[in-house]
Write a sequence for this structure.
């Protein structure tokens, strides 16, 4: 089960946001996509999950094309995208947000099991089940968003900048949770991050994008040790 | 039309007016009446184009605003014995006043709330006539502006005279509006319509612009209402119904909501629909209920199709934002 | 004292109808952020169909489900055939906010005229086995009839069903999520387009119930529910377009308010009163009494 992109081009109005991008992600890998602001990382995830149309190129998951499919249909194929900005619905309660993750699923017993697993991973949430999601802190919201994704039993998890706006301690917690999640469940994770160092530490591989084009890719250890990349993207 | 000077436009209006005057001598009474109707609708639709197409505020109650102008002008004629040109001015002024008050309220409302409020106005206002005796109650007040002045001479029929009055006023209104809309006021309104926040940030007093648009629009609607009263010889609640308000909005949409010239097209279509549907209905061998409702069906379908396929009117949308 | 009590009864009955119409408007607003002015047209058409069912089946109670199903179908069709393509076409253009209003007006006019073409503009009678004459208690007749009782009970039933669906079912959760955050809902697997159509169908059903219940107390004609459109809208604004509970409360408040105005002041200023109440609410508390934040902006 792989995610394969080939010569993908995504337009944003008149601008080409993603240009001739190709890569492959294998089952069970945690790949992080890094790059500076405006590099096209979020656009890339939105194209994969079906929120944005693809102008050119092909994308496939498990051997089947995912171009032109709607997000709600791709969810049923196991592609779950946690969008940026703490993607919870503030008007609903924590419990309802979690239910939303499994709302389309037929196996209610499994939904309950997945929910329990998510709450074991993020115990803070179980204390707040009946509270409105708007009362949660930034970190808790991110936990809720990821939990909701877990309830959907993803096979390919797309995470868009989960560390954005969070305190370092919380970031560590969340990254640790992501790491343990994918090890225990064996899911494939695509992690878009600006916090490149923390992301590379838990990732198998990294892909660096700049202005919509592929700049470098390789095992995370190599990327972390490359001096040119380090100064350009990792800040040291 | 955009880059002519006011003087050029004035000359154009005179030519147009002369042509129409000449033509009016050669058409029958019915067409003269319909022509007057079309001219009046064109004025009313222009008022909506000004309000909605330019300043972005929607009104479902322009029928009520016409009523205000119509009633005011009739009362001015009957109770103050004003000659009807002055009475028209009264109708316009009272319409402006009403628009000012409404505009102050409306300036803070957006979208559906404004629509609903004007809808309530359209439904509520005509029934006010039943409240006050001076407004003539259910049957309304009849008025007769008389025939053409004697210096025109010959057998200038009443409807032909109405046609000519309506067309003259329409030409004057369009000339004024066209010029106004190409000044900075027009630009301000369009800025307010497309992006009020950006407009405010660039120094435009959004509230004032909106109120001004509403006042002006209601003034023009009031004028249309005064003319309408002249044509029908009557003001009454059943003249200014909710259907009239909807019809005007329909005309504005058909016109291309931001297209002043299109108002004429819209008006002609509105007058033509009952005509056409009459002939369609007789071909269908329709009963009374078919004939009386076919215009409504056609209008409704036309409105839906227009807004689906040409929301910016007959001209293709040249600006996609 | 008796007059006061009677006025309350009248107010409850009309308030119940306003609540249903208001609910129909709020349901559509919540699911698609459009005010469906055509709800009066949809309601009248479903009432006519109920009337036809009544004439053929000779059973009022059987005609009600016919009206409700018709209302749901008509509303769903309007959403799928007109509103959804319209939203796609006008997305990002200057007319995006105005176009749906115009479209629903077009639908309203079309349906009314269509109804007139089929059934004529004359007044018809949609008969109900329940009398529209007030109950007699002792020597006095109160202005509350069996039909009024049916109106109140029917409204309560409908409102309870909707409240239950919204709060306790997965469908209700989808509806709420899709109306608050369509994108996040899509990413959670909610078929937002389908859910929106269902929201409209529910609204159509509510309007149909209102029409079928209130019409036996008056007459049936293509324009007979027009006033209800205005009062339903005012009621929805009072409650704040965002809240279903607000819709109900708004309807009751308006119903009672009108009843009292009618009783103690007079019938002729009712329409003006509606307008003034609307303006007052929009000026004083634009988000309605149950709305949060400044949701006055479309």
């Amino acid at each position: 089960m792989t995610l394969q992109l080939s010569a993908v081009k995504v337009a944003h109005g008149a601008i080409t946001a993603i240009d001739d991008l190709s890569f492959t992600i294998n089952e069970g890998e945690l790949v992080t996509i890094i790059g500076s602001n405006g590099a096209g990382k979020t656009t890339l995830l939105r194209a994969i999950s079906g929120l944005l149309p693809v102008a050119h190129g092909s994308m496939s998951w498990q051997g089947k094309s995912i171009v032109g499919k709607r997000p709600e249909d791709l969810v049923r194929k196991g592609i779950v995208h946690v969008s940026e900005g703490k993607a919870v619905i503030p008007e609903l309660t924590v419990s309802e947000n979690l239910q939303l993750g499994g709302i389309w699923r037929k196996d209610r017993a499994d939904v309950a099991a997945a929910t329990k697993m998510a709450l074991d991973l993020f115990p803070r949430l179980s204390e707040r089940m009946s509270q409105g999601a708007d009362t949660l802190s930034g970190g808790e919201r991110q936990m809720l968003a990821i939990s909701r994704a877990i309830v959907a039993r993803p096979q390919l998890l797309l995470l868009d900048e989960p560390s954005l706006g969070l305190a370092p301690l919380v970031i560590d917690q969340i990254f640790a949770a992501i790491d343990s999640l994918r090890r225990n469940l064996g899911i494939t994770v695509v992690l878009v991050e600006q916090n490149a160092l923390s992301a590379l530490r838990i990732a198998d591989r990294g892909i660096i994008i700049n202005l919509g084009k592929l700049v470098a890719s390789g095992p995370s250890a190599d990327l972390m040790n490359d001096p040119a990349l380090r100064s350009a993207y990792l800040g040291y | 039309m955009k880059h002519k000077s006011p003087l050029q436009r004035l000359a154009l209006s005179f030519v147009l007016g002369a042509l129409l005057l000449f033509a009016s001598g050669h058409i029958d009474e019915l067409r003269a009446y319909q022509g007057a109707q079309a001219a009046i609708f064109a004025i009313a639709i222009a008022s909506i184009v000004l309000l909605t197409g330019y300043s972005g505020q929607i009104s479902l109650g322009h029928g009520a605003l016409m009523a205000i102008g119509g009633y005011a002008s009739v009362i001015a004629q009957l109770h103050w014995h004003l000659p009807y040109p002055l009475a028209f001015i009264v109708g316009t002024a009272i319409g402006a006043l009403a628009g000012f008050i409404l505009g102050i309220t409306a300036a803070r409302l957006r979208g559906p709330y404004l629509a609903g409020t004007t809808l309530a106005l359209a439904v509520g206002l005509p029934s006010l006539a039943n409240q006050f005796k001076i407004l003539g109650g259910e049957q309304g007040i009849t008025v007769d502006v008389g025939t053409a002045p004697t210096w025109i001479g010959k057998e200038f029929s009443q409807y032909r005279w109405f046609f000519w009055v309506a067309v003259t006023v329409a030409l004057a209104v369009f000339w004024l509006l066209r010029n106004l809309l190409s000044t900075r006021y027009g630009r301000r309104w369009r800025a307010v319509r497309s992006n009020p926040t950006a407009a405010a940030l660039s120094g435009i007093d959004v509230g004032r612009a909106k109120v001004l648009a509403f006042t002006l629009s209601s003034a023009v609607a009031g004028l249309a209402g005064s003319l309408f009263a002249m044509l029908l010889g009557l003001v009454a609640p059943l003249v200014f119904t909710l259907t009239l308000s909807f019809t005007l909005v329909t005309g504005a949409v058909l016109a291309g909501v931001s297209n002043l010239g299109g108002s004429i097209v819209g008006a002609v279509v509105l007058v033509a629909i009952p005509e056409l549907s009459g002939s369609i209905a007789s071909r269908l061998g329709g009963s009374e209920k078919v004939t009386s409702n076919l215009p409504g069906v056609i209008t409704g379908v036309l409105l839906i199709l227009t807004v689906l396929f040409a929301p910016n009117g007959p001209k293709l949308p040249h600006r996609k934002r | 004292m008796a007059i006061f009590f009677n006025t309350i009864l009248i107010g409850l009955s009309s308030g119940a109808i306003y609540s249903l119409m208001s609910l129909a408007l709020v349901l559509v607003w919540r699911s698609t952020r459009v005010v469906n002015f055509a709800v009066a047209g949809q309601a009248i058409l479903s009432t006519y169909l109920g009337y036809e069912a009544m004439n053929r089946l000779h059973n009022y109670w059987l005609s009600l489900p016919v009206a409700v199903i018709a209302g749901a179908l008509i509303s769903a069709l309007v959403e799928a055939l007109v509103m959804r393509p319209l939203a796609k076409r006008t997305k990002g253009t200057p007319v995006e906010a105005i176009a749906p209003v115009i479209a629903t007006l077009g639908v309203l006019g079309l349906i009314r005229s269509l109804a007139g073409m089929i059934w004529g503009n004359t007044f018809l009678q949609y008969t109900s086995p329940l009398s529209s004459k007030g109950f007699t208690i002792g020597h006095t007749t109160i202005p509350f009839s069996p039909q009024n009782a049916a109106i109140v009970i029917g409204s309560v039933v409908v409102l309870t069903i909707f409240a239950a669906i919204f709060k306790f079912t997965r469908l209700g959760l989808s509806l709420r999520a899709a109306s608050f955050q369509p994108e996040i809902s899509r990413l959670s697997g909610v078929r937002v387009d389908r859910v929106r159509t269902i929201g409209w169908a529910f609204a159509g059903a509510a309007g149909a119930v209102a029409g079928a219940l209130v019409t036996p107390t008056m007459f049936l004609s293509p324009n007979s529910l027009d006033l209800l459109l205005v009062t339903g809208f005012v009621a929805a604004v009072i409650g704040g377009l965002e809240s279903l509970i607000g819709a109900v409360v708004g309807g009751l408040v308006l119903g009672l308010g009108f009843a009292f105005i009618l009783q103690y002041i007079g019938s002729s200023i009712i329409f003006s009163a509606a307008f003034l109440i609307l303006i007052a609410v929009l000026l004083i508390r634009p988000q309605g009494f149950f709305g949060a934040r400044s949701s006055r902006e479309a």
Remarks:
- The CA atoms of residues 61 and 222 of chain C lie 22 Å apart.
- The two ends of chain C are 44 Å apart (CA to CA).
